[in-house]
């Protein structure tokens, strides 16, 4: 049995005729028989040998599953037409020695291409990351500002609080909340940049209006 010399046009012609009514070298699924014959080829069959070329391209698509295909490898001379002897030079045997590993070369090329693609994507990510503005830590703070008594002008008190302006501070909505005995406290919202404005700093500035403000407390504090 055999295909003659599979590294010659005559051997490829025998293979083409053998595959004219077959999908695989043995059986009805890809197997180690196909791997043995595939590895014996030094190049793809020509377009004229369309049966062999069809088989070659199909088996090549299994390169990643090469080792897991069913069957046991036999010498190349155990496959092919019964009336043709194998004379392929340096044919692949059970030891797996072969000067040309068509599967392996594709794996190496694919691995190199995948590595290059990964490096390009990492470089693109790093470039994009470097252009992205740094995240600014901010907090939303709800302040309770208490007056001395019920005779304190709360509109004036709020106006004084809002005169406090600094980089990283933004005043928001406000309201008066009853605390008892006719006294109301000012509850006012603000957003601050953590690196620029602190609660202690706000307390110091607000309580500086000592004729109007008795004390300042933090009613709520949330990171944004």
Our count of helices gives 6
Give the assembly state of these chains: single chain
Mean pLDDT: 87
N-C termini distance:
78 Å
The amount of beta strand, in percent, is: 15-25%
> How would you sum up the global shape?
rod-shaped
The main sheet comes to:
4 strands, antiparallel
The residue fraction in helices comes out at 25-40%
Strand order of the largest sheet: 2-3-1-4
Class per helix and strand makeup = alpha+beta
Spans with pLDDT under 50 lasting ≥5 residues? 91-100
Please count the beta strands (DSSP E, at least 2 residues each). 4
Which sequence of SSEs, written as H and E, runs from N to C? HHHHEHEEHE
- Radius of gyration (CA) equals 41 Å
Organism: Polyodon spathula
Keywords: Elongation factor, Protein biosynthesis
Domain GST C-terminal: 1-84
Subunit structure: EF-1 is composed of 4 subunits: alpha, beta (alpha subunit of the eEF1B subcomplex), delta (beta subunit of the eEF1B subcomplex), and gamma (gamma subunit of the eEF1B subcomplex). Interacts with elongation factor EEF1A1.
What does this structure look like?
The protein is an alpha+beta fold and 224 residues long. Helices cover 34% and strands 20% of the residues. It is built from six helices and four strands, in the order ααααβαββαβ. It has helices spanning 9-18, 32-40, 50-60, 102-131, 154-162, 199-206; strands at 138-147, 169-180, 183-193, 213-223. Strands 2-3-1-4 form a four-stranded antiparallel β-sheet, with helices on one face. The protein is rod-shaped. It starts with 8 loop residues before the first helix and ends with a strand. Residues 91-100 have low confidence and may be disordered.
